Amino acid sequence: MPVNTSAILRRTLAAAVALPLLTLTACSYGSKAKDDDPDQKVAAGAKKIDGLDSVKIGYFGNLTHATALVGRQKGFFQKELGATEVKPSVFNAGPSEIEALNAKSIDIGWIGPSPAINGYTKSDGKGLRIIGGSASGGVKLVVNPKKITSLKDVKGKKIATPQLGNTQDVAFLNWIAEQGWKVDAQSGKGDVSVVRTDNKVTPDAFKSGSIDGAWVPEPTASKLVAEGGKTLLDESTLWPDKKFVITNIIVRQDFLRDHPEAVEAVLKASVETNKWINANPEEAKAAANKQLAADSGKALPAAVLDPAWKSIQFIDDPLAATLNTEAEHAVKAGLLKQPKLDGIYDLTPLNKVLKAAGEPTVSDAGLGVK
What we know:
Structural class: alpha/beta
Strand content: 15-25%
Distance between the termini: 39 Å
Strand order of the largest sheet: 1-3-2-4-11-5-12
Oligomer: single chain
Shape: globular
């Protein structure tokens, strides 16, 4: 079923409007790494990058941030940073990571498009830059097959999204509108009941029957399938080339200005990690799950991990055009005022790394620094 690309993309921007309202769920500025983490191992004779004692890196403990998970677990970041120590922090929510970035508690972070846009606009374009991509895909509409057997059956049902105005919430609202149905974005009431539910709670809500399905990212989608749900729609099928940004790399602007070699080293590690992930998918999946277990205390079972992993693409391209379109959609949905995104990207360091590696460079879709 064809879907207007510009309609789908507005979801990320919608998140920008709602994110300030969300409760920060990370403890302080995230969970710190343990001393025996593999990324703490510094090679003999290694030198510091840019004279820095450490580089503080943030990410979420989920599969869409697998570049950071694998890069940490396999030591790619520490290898490129030499004697400059990698200091990771794990976050549970976008707002807390942006807060940490603004407070200089982290220097570089893996984060979703919505909080990146929100952080940029709230700082009047002075807080951060997007310097690279990391992942695409990994979002699905999963339903109770006893209640919903086709897309048209979604009308009149209760469908969960993670948060009001978050990336998936806006995507679902947009999809609803494209079906010709009406829903009040703020209340979630209308032809479909949009129930904002934390991803940690969604599987239990699904099992209890309080929701009939959910438009959610991985691994929540695969957790629902493991509970008897059926994937009714993979969001990637709604996008050109089946690609849309789900995870970007951001940096503090002052850190980018003052420590370009360190930024370049992290980007080189990211590119190397993605290359290794795509060349060694099974080993990479195991490494990501091992780091997830270290971060959360619990690994994902194969029934959840395997399908979730298959639905995510690990790429260096930030897919800037999709970010821009998502912004337009959020504005059209009435969840965001027209943002000024000029200058949100600085892909010069990434393109330098890609060119040196013999890889094609990537575009900022006209939203780069001038």
